[in-house]
């Protein structure tokens, strides 16, 4: 197992590589070219420049999160051919540079949704929060304004230039069913997975966050049955999963440890985080400690150990603690605590097996 840490790049992240280097056991930097819009080709030179910077600090740079899928691919428009061709070129360039895993999602319009990026918790820390009733009563523009309140740090999937046409994009999905979205995903996978196989790059789809429909948009990556269907669309090992315990864990019906045992070598990348679920449908991103949330983090880490997981796990989001300021969910301190909690479970399991 490799422990990874998501980093947004030099000049785009208040957390520095020198800081991350001091987190015990952390070997991978999970990265992306965040200035690239969905559908653009990632050029060889800029890939090499970013990877060389990461590697110069003693890290591996084998996991990319994310190469975003253009909306026209999800919608199944004729223009998708151009964007699929660009995606294939990016896969080739990343594979040639030594990247092993590409995380992506197939969520229409919104990559993820929260209603408050800094909800204060009883201990004074702040965390990402989802308020069900507020979302039900809000417009998409209301949510966009909430997410973009801090212009200093762009949020992944919420780039202002892409959201400027949000109403038009949502309207385009009115005639797109879940089956249509599955069909469009299959069309995409049938064209890119052979390239992934050729260049030994594993594609890893991220679950819907939250794992249910929002604003009446179709969602198809929300539970074990849908994940299995996606793997069956192109039944080849390079078509795999980013298994996110926090995204899936927002729905109490999702048994994440069971999914780990079910999917095993098709899990190419893992996000481990906790959420506290409220009875009314709200949830907040708690610390990684199992007792602080509703997700069985200990069982999840034990399941990864039991299947002999060799991929990359990152702590995903964290609270903001100790007066840290920065990109919501992506501070240094709480994610570092999460890593130590996960490694503690892993080390204990290893001792028990000796």
Automatic annotation (TrEMBL):
EC number: 4.2.1.8
Top-level EC class as recorded in UniProt: lyase
GO molecular function, one term: mannonate dehydratase activity
Keyword Transcription regulation among UniProt keywords: no
GO biological process: D-glucuronate catabolic process
Organism: Marinococcus halophilus
Cofactor(s) it depends on: Fe(2+); Mn(2+)
Similarity annotation: Belongs to the mannonate dehydratase family.
Protein name as catalogued: Mannonate dehydratase
């Amino acid at each position: 197992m490799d422990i990874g840490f998501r980093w947004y790049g030099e000049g785009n992240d208040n957390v520095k590589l020198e800081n991350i280097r001091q987190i015990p056991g952390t070997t991978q930097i999970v990265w992306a070219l965040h200035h690239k819009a969905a559908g653009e080709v990632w050029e060889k030179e800029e890939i090499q420049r970013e990877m060389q910077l990461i590697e110069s600090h003693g890290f591996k740079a084998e996991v990319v999160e994310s190469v975003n899928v253009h909306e026209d691919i999800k919608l199944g428009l004729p223009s998708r051919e151009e964007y699929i061709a660009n995606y294939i070129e990016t896969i080739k360039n990343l594979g040639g540079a030594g990247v092993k895993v590409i995380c992506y999602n197939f969520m229409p319009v919104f990559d993820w949704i929260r209603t408050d990026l800094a909800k204060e918790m009883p201990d004074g820390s702040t965390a990402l929060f989802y308020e069900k009733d507020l979302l039900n009563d809000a417009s998409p523009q209301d949510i966009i304004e909430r997410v973009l309140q801090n212009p200093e740090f762009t949020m992944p999937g919420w780039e202002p230039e892409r959201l400027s046409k949000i109403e038009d994009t949502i309207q385009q999905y009115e005639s797109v069913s879940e089956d249509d979205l599955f069909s469009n995903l299959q069309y995409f996978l049938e064209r890119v997975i052979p390239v992934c196989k050729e260049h030994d790059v594993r594609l890893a789809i991220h679950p819907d966050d939250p794992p249910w429909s929002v604003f009446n948009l179709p969602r198809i990556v929300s539970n074990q049955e849908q994940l299995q269907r996606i793997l069956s669309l192109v039944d080849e090992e390079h078509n795999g999963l980013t298994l996110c315990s926090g995204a899936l864990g927002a729905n109490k019906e999702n048994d994440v440890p069971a999914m780990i045992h079910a999917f095993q070598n098709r899990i190419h990348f893992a996000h481990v985080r906790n959420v506290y679920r409220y009875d009314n449908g709200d949830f907040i991103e708690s610390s990684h400690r199992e007792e602080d949330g509703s997700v069985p983090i200990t069982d999840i880490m034990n399941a990864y150990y039991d299947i002999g997981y060799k991929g990359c796990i990152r702590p995903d989001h964290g609270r903001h603690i100790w007066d840290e300021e920065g990109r919501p969910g992506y501070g240094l301190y709480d994610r570092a605590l999460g890593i130590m909690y996960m490694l503690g479970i892993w080390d204990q399991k290893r001792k028990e097996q000796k």
